[in-house]
DNA sequence: AAACAATCCAACCGCAGCCCG
DNA sequence: TCGGGCTGCGGTTGGATTGTT
């Protein structure tokens, strides 16, 4: 049986106080993101390492955007989700200043409902791009294409796989390379 | 103004995978 | 090669806020 990540009897849970936030920020600014397991004690926090990590990554990191999602970001999320599914960290990796949690929440509370209620309308704009991209790219680089309706080609664990429905034959160029997430803007993330 | 419902989002949980001895 | 420890990820929860009746 695996040990729990921390002694839960002696850790705080729930919302973070300003003092806790400050302690965490101060510590990470001084020492960087080191070992999360030992960080709470070193920083004088009664939290488990996981909680500290989450708080930092999702809320306290200085490079995070705190404003709402733009139209272009929403559009990108929809496209990436069509390709990657619920790989929120990968999706967030393509959106500077956004976290996986934020993207996931935004998807669940905004985009999913939108797509459910306006499914065909939602694809109208995509279809215009599809037509343009189709003739240009279809044969060149299949791994950057998906079928908007039901996935002609999927990306599965680093491997391209044909999927079960190829009815539409419509492709969209996502202009996507699956590089290591956040490498484009890692300076603030890794410091 | 109060009660209830719906929505949002920060935080938690448990699992998977990576790393290292 | 194997096993244990640690981190990261995705799913889920629950409290706070906002909207509706």
TrEMBL record:
It is found in: Nucleus. Its main location: nucleus. Residues 8-60, 61-115 form the HTH myb-type domain. It comes from the Eukaryota. InterPro entries: Homeodomain-like_sf, Myb_dom, Myb_TF_plants, SANT/Myb. Residues 8-60, 61-111 form the Myb-like domain. GO terms for cellular component: nucleus. It holds the Pfam family Myb_DNA-binding. Keywords: DNA-binding, Nucleus, Repeat. GO terms for molecular function: DNA binding. The keyword DNA repair does not apply. This is MYB transcription factor. It comes from Salix brachista. The lineage of its organism: Eukaryota, Viridiplantae, Streptophyta, Embryophyta, Tracheophyta.
